Amino acid sequence: MSRQEAIQALERALAISRELAAVAENGDTRVALRLDAERLRLLQSVRHALQPMDEKDRAVLREIAELNDRSIGLLEHRFRAKCPDMDMLSAGRRAMPAYTTTRP
Questions:
Q1: Of residues 67, 56, 52, 66, the one with CA closest to residue 16
Q2: Domain coordinates of the chain in residue numbers?
Q3: Can you give the pTM of this predicted structure?
Q4: In Å, how far are 10, 29, 36, 63 from 19, measured between CA atoms?
Q5: Cα angle for residues 73, 78, 79 (degrees, 5° grid)
Q6: Contact, 75 vs 29, CB < 8 A?
Q7: CB neighbours (10 Å) of residue 64?
Q8: What is the pLDDT of residues 28-64, one digit of tens each?
Q9: What DSSP state is assigned to residue 32?
Q10: What are all long-range contacts of 95-102, with beta carbons under 8 Å and residues at least 24 apart?
């Protein structure tokens, strides 16, 4: 891979990171997983082609890292918000057998 191709791939990884942040806000984990895998593939492919790395490339990587942190935070927040609901559902399912025997 040439340096120019690597720079284009890095820019595509940045675009994917922006899209991933928007998807994480909506909580669509399936799309988030697909985008994350695509971005990882791109980042791994450019790793050796961008040596030595200039300041512009570092800035793009920093932005990707910041967007990634934001996306992870959004998804973790959604997960934590769902946990109490899942606990209540589980308690309700456990209680069902106790109430089914009281029917006339």
A1: 67
A2: 3-75
A3: 0.73
A4: 14, 13, 10, 13
A5: 95
A6: yes
A7: 21
A8: 889 999 999 999 999 999 988 888 888 999 999 999 9
A9: H
A10: none
Q: DSSP secondary structure string, 42-103?
A: HHHHHTTTTPSP-HHHHHHHHHHHHHHHHHHHHHHHHHHHHHHHHHHHHHHHHHHHHHHTT-
Unique residue bearing structure tokens 């997983």: 33
Cα–Cα distances in angstroms (integers) from residue 4 to residues 8, 26, 28, in the given order: 6, 34, 33
Residue 27 burial (CB count, 10 A): 15
The string of pLDDT tens digits covering residues 66-75 is 999 999 988 8
Which amino acid is residue 16, in one-letter code? Answer: I
